[in-house]
Design goal:
The chain has one domain: HAD superfamily/HAD-like (Rossmann fold, 3-Layer(aba) Sandwich), CATH 3.40.50.1000. The protein has eight helices and nine strands. It is globular and about 50 Å long. A nine-stranded mixed beta sheet has the order 1-9-8-7-4-5-6-3-2, sandwiched between helices. The chain has 254 residues and is of the alpha/beta class. Helix content is 31%, strand content 14%. Strand 7, helix 6 and strand 8 form a beta-alpha-beta unit. The relative contact order is 0.21. It holds the Pfam family Hydrolase.
């Protein structure tokens, strides 16, 4: 079910794009690459500390022609069930009901689907990049079984203390994804369950969508007045995907 909210009286902060930029520490980058297992792990661009990318396919697609239709998804609480003590292992990674079908619907509607997720549990040493790689391999497998595709996963392993540019609500990951896929920021959706998710896409002029799974209900009740203007609210990712499909099939006015 789609829900609409009134425009925010006080727009959220949009001046959080990385003001603190330094060359990434090479030693830290190599260490994370060393524990990446079979996942493709690479350094992001133009931010300190670096943005990391993971995808389970050898080649991450990149558009060189027309702009791609892009939807960015938060992970915990949107695609999979969230936990107060972090999702730390492949066994703890459990899909939200209907989320695999939702990604399949978005794929079949012609959208490129990417994931942008804060994973400070790595920086806090609650789990490793290898654990994360295993979770994402499971996610890819289940999405493909449903007939969908996740074209890339961006994650931030840092804590707030790192003052990086990739941890949402800062827009580093979002900017990197949009640039990678040659998408138009103004036409790009981000679906999340937290205020910081929505602030990250709003900072680049994109389309915010809040789902009420995960922390979504709490976000709406506690931060409803802070949500970016034009935020659209849906019960689940599946409801969002059905809305997108209806939008794509609606007759266009002459």
């Amino acid at each position: 079910m789609q829900r609409k909210i009134r425009p925010a009286e006080n727009p959220p902060l949009q001046e959080q794009a990385g003001k603190h930029r330094q060359p990434p520490p090479k030693r830290r980058t190599r260490a994370l690459q060393a524990v990446a297992g079979t996942g493709a792990l690479s350094r992001g661009t133009g931010a300190f500390p670096p943005i990391f990318q993971y995808n389970a396919t050898p080649d991450l697609p990149q558009s060189k022609g027309n702009a791609m239709k892009l939807i960015i998804l938060d992970r915990d609480g949107v695609i999979n069930q969230d936990r107060d003590d972090f999702v730390k292992s492949v066994d703890e990674w459990i899909p939200v009901e209907g989320s695999m079908d939702a990604v399949a619907f978005l794929t079949q509607a012609g959208y490129t689907v990417a994931v942008a997720t804060n994973q400070s549990g790595i920086g806090r040493k609650y789990f490793t990049v290898q654990n994360l790689t295993e979770m994402h391999a499971k996610m890819h497998r289940l999405v493909r079984q449903a007939g969908g595709e996740i074209n890339g996963i961006w994650f931030c392993p840092h804590t707030d203390a790192d003052n990086c540019n990739c941890r949402k609500p800062k827009p580093g990951m979002i900017e990197d994804i949009i640039g990678r896929f040659n998408a138009q920021a103004s036409e790009t959706w981000l679906v999340g369950d937290s205020l910081r998710d929505l602030q990250a896409i709003d900072a680049v002029g994109g389309k915010p969508a809040l789902v009420l799974t995960g922390k979504g209900k709490k976000t709406l009740s506690q931060h409803g007045h802070e949500l970016p203007e034009h935020t659209q609210v849906f019960d689940t990712l599946l409801d969002f995907s059905q809305y997108i499909m209806q939008e794509n099939t609606a007759p266009q006015a002459d």
